[in-house]
Amino acid sequence: MTLTLIIAFAIFVFLFALAIVFSGWPRWLKGVLTLGVCAFYFFGYQAVFSLLGNPSVDPLPARFLLIAAVVEEPRPKYAGALYLWVTPIEEGKQGLEPRAYKLPYMRALHEKINEGMRKGRQGISQMGTAEPRAGTGKGPSWLNPGKDEQEVKIVDLPVPQVPEK
């Protein structure tokens, strides 16, 4: 799929170059279109980059099943990161496709993830919840600190109840 997108973009750029060179459009329009294609390149690169399996920086799903985690602790000139591989849980049903997420390093979350992974190795499945962290409530919402951050909790997955016959 990635190769298909790259070839499609190359064909688009080639056709655009032909239109620029052989058209009678005014120079200002050719310049605007050239800048547009250059900007589209960066947008397309980000789209293809997310398809390559790199961790998403999007917010975690509201409920998820924790599959695996990798923690990179902070060091000089690197803020650290938490990488989670989770499967979303929607309406009580586990999703089919796991997804990798990258979170900024936080010591408290690091400890929660380590505890969850330890229990996971013991055979106890772990479920997580992610809720938006509330700001201070003062001022406009876009000024509230922590508005884009999430409060992540890791708990044991409840044992499914088998209905009686």
Architecture overview:
- By secondary structure, this protein is an alpha+beta fold.
- It has two domains: 2-51; 63-156, no CATH class.
- It has helices spanning 2-22, 27-51, 107-121, and strands spanning 63-72, 81-90, 93-94, 99-104, 126-132, 150-156.
- Strands 1, 2, 3, 4, 5 and 6 form a six-stranded antiparallel sheet that branches.
- The protein is elongated.
- The chain starts with a helix and ends in a 9-residue tail after the last strand.
Using brief descriptors, characterize the structure shown:
6-stranded antiparallel beta sheet; 2 domains; alpha+beta; 165 residues; 3 helices; single chain; 6 strands; 25% strand; elongated
Q: Share of helix among residues?
A: 25-40%
Low-confidence stretches: none
SS strand fraction: 25-35%
Quaternary organisation of the protein chains: single chain
Q: Tally the helices.
A: 3
Average pLDDT score: 82
How many domains comprise the coordinates?
2
Q: Return the string of H and E elements.
A: HHEEEEHEE
What does the largest sheet look like? 6 strands, antiparallel
- Structural class call reads alpha+beta
The strand count comes to 6
Global geometry: elongated
How far apart, in Å, are the first and last alpha carbons?
48 Å
**How many whole angstroms does the radius of gyration measure?**
23 Å
What can be said about this structure in brief?
This protein has 165 residues and is an alpha+beta fold.
